[in-house]
Amino acid sequence: MNFEHLKLFVRVASTHNISQAGEELGLSPPVASMHINRLEESLGVRLIHRTTRKVSLTEEGMAFLPHAEEIIQSVVVARAAVGSGDAQPQGTLRITAPASFGRMHLMPAFKAFVAQYPALYIDIRLTDSIVDLVEGGFDVAIRNAQLQDSSLIAKKLAVDKRIMCASVEYVAQYGKPETPQDLHHHQCINQAGLENWVFSTPDGPLSMKIKGSIRIDHGEAVRDACANGMGIAKCATWIAYEHSKRGEMVQVLEDYPLIDEAAIWAVYPSSRLLAPKVRAFIDYFSNYYGNPPYWDK
Question: What value does the mean pLDDT of the chain take?
């Protein structure tokens, strides 16, 4: 059984694309397909269903996958024990991330990341839609929403702190709310899906659902409306910190912090074999954002 064939099979299982998996390992599509055929011949079973649109594992392929991963991991560990082997990140790293966070906090960091890992080719998709990692052939996703798919692994990169904000113009005209209940007498900007605001108070958690006059489905637009004096809003610090530094927005209700366990996560398909390129991405950005992240300092 050929070790390189096993590595290719594991990548095919993750990407659902023989050509892409082969490219990541420096193989042309015909050679990659031939390697999979030879692996199947050596085992005497078909491991992969092939169609014109995608490939998927057969029942035998699904049963064989964890054993292939274990063999590869054992070889990697064995090579590391004697100081041999090449675990340098290489190939294509396919990433998906929310559009706003990606523009503000991924793209500025990639120049140094690419310089550190020159053998990597970076393929990024910025979208606010939750994409299927396996179906889309992505290696890793950045998410700041609760993980729903239990077949995925999530590693926290940074906390995602939320605060109540208002513009200097708004505060000058309408004043600051002193308690969460005062929000009923203020203009409030709701973000679709985040209308429920839970505050920490001396009497315990206080949940409020404010019916504001504005409801927006995009975080940057909520921030911009708030910065333009249109009302009080709940904002992630990573999206509002630059406006705060410039003195355009201020925090309100500081004595009643929001109860929110949101975080920025790196999410990837479940596997006991974490590709070096994914590990490099997670380690780099965990360090880049810091603890606390730079936008909260």
Answer: 87
Q: Report d(CA 281, CA 277) in Å as an integer.
A: 6
Give the separation between CA 207 and CA 296, rounded to whole angstroms.
24
- In degrees and rounded to multiples of 5, residue 143 shows phi and psi of -140, 145
Q: Could you report the per-residue pLDDT of 160-200, keeping only the tens digit for each?
A: 999 999 999 999 999 999 999 999 999 999 988 888 899 99
Contacts 24+ apart (CB under 8 A), 179-182: 179/253, 179/256, 180/206, 180/208, 180/253, 180/256, 181/208
Q: Check if the beta carbon of residue 266 is closer than 8 Å to that of residue 147.
A: no
**How does DSSP assign 64-82, residue by residue?**
HHHHHHHHHHHHHHHHHHT
User: When comparing pLDDT for 145 and 8, which is higher?
Assistant: 8
| Rg for the chain, CA atoms, rounded | 24
- pTM of the predicted model over 0.85: no
Contact 139, 275 (CB under 8 A): yes
Q: Is 58 exposed, middle or buried (0-12, 13-18, 19+ CB in 10 A)?
A: middle
Asked if 140 and 124 touch (Cβ cutoff 8 Å), the reply is no
Other C-beta atoms closer than 10 Å to the C-beta of 272 total 11
**Three-state DSSP class for 226?**
helix
Amino acid 87 reads A
